Amino acid sequence: MQEKIQVLREAFQSAIAEANTEEALESLRIAYLGKKGCIADLMKGLRDVQDKKTAGQLINDFKCEVERAITEGIEAKRAEALSMQIRSARKYNPTLMAEREFGSYHPITLATRDCEEVFAGMGFTFEDYAEVVDDYECFEALNIPKHHPARDMQDTYYLENGQLLKTQTSAAQNAIMRKYGAPLRAIFPGRCFRNESTDACHENTFFQMEGMMIDENISISNLIYFMKTMLSEVFKRDIKVRLRPGFFPFVEPGFELDINCLICGGEGCPSCKNSGWLELCPCGMIHPNVLREGGIDTEKYTGFAFGLGLTRLAMMKFGVKDIRDFNSGNLQALMQFKSV
Ligand code: FA5
Question: Which domains does the chain have, with CATH numbers?
């Protein structure tokens, strides 16, 4: 019996060394431990053996050896398969990335970047400013004292603590003058809030981009040159503009710069309130009171400022007929600008 077991043990050892898969190990289990397997045969042979106890013990030891070797082999194979799975899951798979849907930049972000690029090329710095400001920043520093009728033009959201939601990017003018002094060239885009009834060209939340240039001998011709350059570079084509007098207490003289509506080509449509023109960029020479309030020497320096309606510019640039689409969160509408 001992010799028989030794022959089987050697055969088992070479078979298990070659069993590379869990299936191969399972086949070995059936061949050795199954009902009709080698060990069952050995047990049947016990009938013809005299020292049954010793032989039985030998068979049992061999059976335990086989069981342990097969169980350990299967566990090792399973651990190996699991770690392969984890490794391959971590692998970067470029084909999966290609199938994924990516978001896109908001058209106002795209328009802002275009403007920034144009102004950066003309030596302007780029500033950020708060959305919650106080009465001084938004009005008083801009030559709009309390009870001035010009306040009515901007229906303001006041907070309980007396602060307010910025109605115009001009609210940053004073802080920027105080921060840099003169000479100065800066643009500062920002979100503005007004309690307005909305229509195709009015939103209660919209973007403006303010710009200021302060230096010696700055005149209206500089203002007109910068406005024209900015618009022709942003739109990359000839567009009709008109300049007409406009009143803002913080500029003197003040102008309204309108753009010929690019949605209807000037014929009149809801996007331009049927006038064929869209108010886009009021501007003017900064009022001496405002310069003085910003700590600028008005004997030496003059400057211009403008308040570009960035959301309206994005409407015209991308042919969006209704300004409300920008804040709608309608992904189908916004995703169209993916490849712009
Ligand atoms: C102002 O806000 C002035 N601060 C602009 C300015 C700056 C004048 C510096 C002179 C010097 P106004 O309220 O007109 O002006 O707004 C400026 C531009 O913002 C408008 O021409 C328009 O393009 C845009 N705008 C104003 N209100 C809305 C609105 N409700 N929805 C969308 N765009 C608006």
Answer: 2-89 (no CATH), 107-334 (3.30.930.10)
The reported pLDDT for the residue numbered 92 is 62
Please tell me the distance from the alpha carbon of residue 102 to that of residue 112, in angstroms, as a whole number: 21
Using DSSP's 3-state secondary structure scheme, residue 248 falls into coil
* Ligand 1 atom at shortest distance from the alpha carbon of 256: 21
Whole-number Å distance between alpha carbons of 215 and 252: 16
**To test ligand 1's pocket by mutation, which of 213, 312, 322 has the most ligand atoms within 8 angstroms of CB?**
312
Residue pLDDT, tens place only, 90-109: 666 666 656 566 778 899 99
Global pTM exceeds 0.85: no
What does the angle CA 110 – CA 173 – CA 139 come to, to the nearest 5 degrees? 110
User: What's the 72 CA to ligand 1 centre distance in angstroms?
Assistant: 77
- The residues, ordered by sequence, that sit 6+ positions from 271 with a Cβ below 8 Å of its Cβ are 200, 201, 261, 263, 264, 278, 315, 321, 322, 323
pLDDT of residue 190: 97
State the residue for tokens 């077991």. Answer: 5
125-126 and 184-193 strand pairing:
parallel
**DSSP 3-state assignment of 65?**
helix
Percent of the chain with pLDDT over 70: 95
